[in-house]
Amino acid sequence: MQMNPSFYLVRYSLRHIWNSATGILSPDLFEVDSEGHIRTMEVLDREQINAYTLEIVACDSASLNPLCAELNVTVTVLDENDNKPEWHYPHARDKEVNITSDLPPGRIVARILAMDLDAGENGRVVYSLIDPHRRTVFQVRFNLFIDHIYE
């Protein structure tokens, strides 16, 4: 029995797209071409949605009774360093910390806090002091406290 070559042709379609944040999306975010390549149609941002599940259907080309198979493909959006840290303390409107002149060395002066929306190493915030006069009066410890230390 000779096989019809048209049975070897496979048509691909994208039935649904789910995301981890809101549920079903419009099919305009991804497409599947005639060769089965999945492409993004828009720029994806991990901080908004970090994963998508695409329900893809492959059908043979039989004219009377085509057979189809479904497959769920998970697309995970990797992080890139696209966000700068945002200060939570001190606030942009309130950048001043007042201390008394007789505060002993080693006392905590303030706790600073900045957050970065990126994940992993891209979201790790490193603190440092910029001292234009090269005097060591304060230091930043890893636990986010600014310490008052006189030399």
From TrEMBL:
<dbReference type="InterPro" id="IPR002126">
    <property type="entry name" value="Cadherin-like_dom"/>
</dbReference>
<keyword id="KW-0812">Transmembrane</keyword>
<keyword id="KW-0472">Membrane</keyword>
<dbReference type="Pfam" id="PF00028">
    <property type="entry name" value="Cadherin"/>
</dbReference>
<keyword id="KW-0106">Calcium</keyword>
<dbReference type="GO" id="GO:0007156">
    <property type="term" value="P:homophilic cell adhesion via plasma membrane adhesion molecules"/>
</dbReference>
<keyword id="KW-0677">Repeat</keyword>
<dbReference type="GO" id="GO:0005911">
    <property type="term" value="C:cell-cell junction"/>
</dbReference>
<dbReference type="InterPro" id="IPR020894">
    <property type="entry name" value="Cadherin_CS"/>
</dbReference>
<dbReference type="InterPro" id="IPR015919">
    <property type="entry name" value="Cadherin-like_sf"/>
</dbReference>
<dbReference type="GO" id="GO:0005886">
    <property type="term" value="C:plasma membrane"/>
</dbReference>
<dbReference type="GO" id="GO:0005509">
    <property type="term" value="F:calcium ion binding"/>
</dbReference>
<feature type="domain" description="Cadherin">
    <location>
        <begin position="10"/>
        <end position="87"/>
    </location>
</feature>
<keyword id="KW-1133">Transmembrane helix</keyword>
<dbReference type="InterPro" id="IPR050971">
    <property type="entry name" value="Cadherin-domain_protein"/>
</dbReference>
<keyword id="KW-0130">Cell adhesion</keyword>
<protein>
    <submittedName>
        <fullName>CA domain-containing protein</fullName>
    </submittedName>
</protein>
